[in-house]
Write a structure and sequence with these properties.
single chain; mainly alpha; two-stranded antiparallel sheet; 1% strand
Length: 442
């Protein structure tokens, strides 16, 4: 691969004190250790934790409903609880990693993730399953937030955006294979077997972190304060208007994506009559589109096109695709089949390959300290906004795609509004992403 692609993590990439702009190469301040392929795969595995925990479990929802004799609405809470746990857990794990380094909080979180996943496999009631899924999300959040913080420790500017695109390639495989794996597991065992497989994956990843992931935050750069200092760092970050704008733009873009994840099984199967196999195929194809565009972003766009301009273009494509879905679902084009709806969903999902990594990179470029706290705010906002969007897609029942399209369009419009209004990409000074948040961690 080219030096702008997956080989980037192998290079000795300079870490900077200040970026000159989203499009500029950073100035050198110090050199970080080389990041090998195995470490890159470990970070990708940590990033893949959410889609594995969520998507592998999706095919088993009807069986859980029957097995635990619970209403479908209550079983849906097992998804919401996991998502909520992943959102709130990042607020704890991120600042902890700024204080004690990356390895210790990450290992504690991964061990807790494995234990809670085992408990999910043996949950006797749906109420306990909801509680254990909440714990699973809280623990798994450490992997999500600390993986981003490690990337911020090692990279900055253009190199960081490229690395996020590389992680998207690895993490993007998870939503492609997770539902397929979940469906195959159900052919040989029940829904509890899904959590057994997740336990094995979590155990292997924990062992890999223990053996191969080095500490990336030197002791001299850690923060000795407690909760008060963490809250102070977050307040300083949120006071930086461009950081908050990039955070909200990425969060609402994620809401549009999660609306698709929540509603697509019903839209594609119940409304358009597709088989589970067809749904799995389309789900995987859309994930391939996201991964492919993410790689185009990392290899071709980053370094040649300003990151904020690429982000804005991605949001406009999402808006166009969501508008098309809304028009089709309301009958503006007459009765349409599955093919045009699937095409619009493919375009929307593919655009996320430009939108999400660039939003994260631009936000993290705003801070040279407290990367854990910054990563926590990014992750928590995305998951919380996604958790709010998830139930809205079913507000009108399972036999119309209008709520999904409305949520996606509204979320994308809000994302664009936050980006344009708070990040000022139209400003001639180009100060969005120009300097880091001074003293965010002090």
């Amino acid at each position: 691969m080219s030096e702008q692609g997956a080989s980037t993590p192998h290079a000795s990439t300079p870490h900077i004190q200040q970026t000159a702009g989203p499009e500029a190469e950073p100035a050198v301040a110090r050199t970080v250790p080389r990041t090998g392929l195995l470490v890159t795969l470990i970070l990708g595995g940590l990033t893949a934790t959410p889609p594995l925990a969520m998507d592998m479990y999706l095919p088993s929802l009807p069986e859980v409903t029957n097995s635990l004799h619970a209403p479908a609405a209550t079983v849906q809470l097992t998804l919401t609880a996991c998502l909520l746990g992943m959102a709130l857990g990042q607020l704890v794990a991120g600042p902890m990693s700024d204080r004690w380094g990356r390895r210790r909080p990450l290992l504690i979180g991964m061990v807790a993730y494995v234990v809670s996943t085992v408990l999910c496999a043996f949950a006797p009631t749906v109420e306990l399953l909801v509680a254990f899924r909440l714990a699973q999300g809280l623990a798994g959040a450490a992997g999500i937030v600390i993986a981003r913080a490690v990337v911020r420790d090692l990279y900055d500017g253009v190199a960081m955006a490229r690395f996020f695109s590389t992680l998207m390639l690895i993490g993007g495989v998870a939503p492609i294979v997770a539902p397929l794996i979940g469906g195959q597991i159900l052919r040989v065992t029940d829904w509890r077997g899904v959590f057994v497989v997740l336990t094995v994956v979590g155990t292997v990843l924990t062992a890999a972190v223990w053996a191969k992931l080095p500490e990336t935050l030197p002791s001299g750069e850690r923060h000795g304060g407690g909760v008060g200092e963490a809250l102070h760092s977050m307040r300083r970050l949120l006071a930086d208007l461009p950081f908050t704008g990039f955070m909200l733009a990425g969060g609402f873009a994620f809401a549009a994506l999660f609306a698709y994840i929540s509603a697509s099984p019903y839209v594609i199967q119940e409304i358009y009559g597709a088989s589970p196999q067809t749904f799995s195929l389309l789900f995987g194809l859309n994930s391939v589109g996201l991964v492919a565009v993410g790689q185009i972003n990392g290899k071709l766009l980053v370094g040649r096109v300003r990151l904020d301009r690429a982000l804005g273009a991605g949001l406009l494509v999402v808006i166009a695709a969501a508008t098309a879905l809304l028009l089709m679902s309301t009958g503006a084009f007459g009765k349409v089949g599955l093919a045009p709806v699937a095409a619009a969903l493919f375009v929307l999902m593919s655009a996320m390959g430009v939108t999400l990594p660039n939003a994260q990179a631009l936000a993290l470029m705003r801070t040279k300290h407290a990367a854990g706290s910054a990563s926590a705010l990014l992750g928590t906002s995305s998951f919380l906004i996604g958790a709010v969007a998830s139930p809205l897609v079913g507000i009108a029942g399972e036999h119309t795609a209008v709520p999904m399209a409305v949520v996606q369009l509204a979320a994308a419009l809000v994302a664009l509004g936050c980006f344009v209004g708070m990040c000022r990409p139209h400003s001639g000074s180009h100060d969005s992403g120009r300097t880091s948040v001074e003293g965010a961690g002090s």
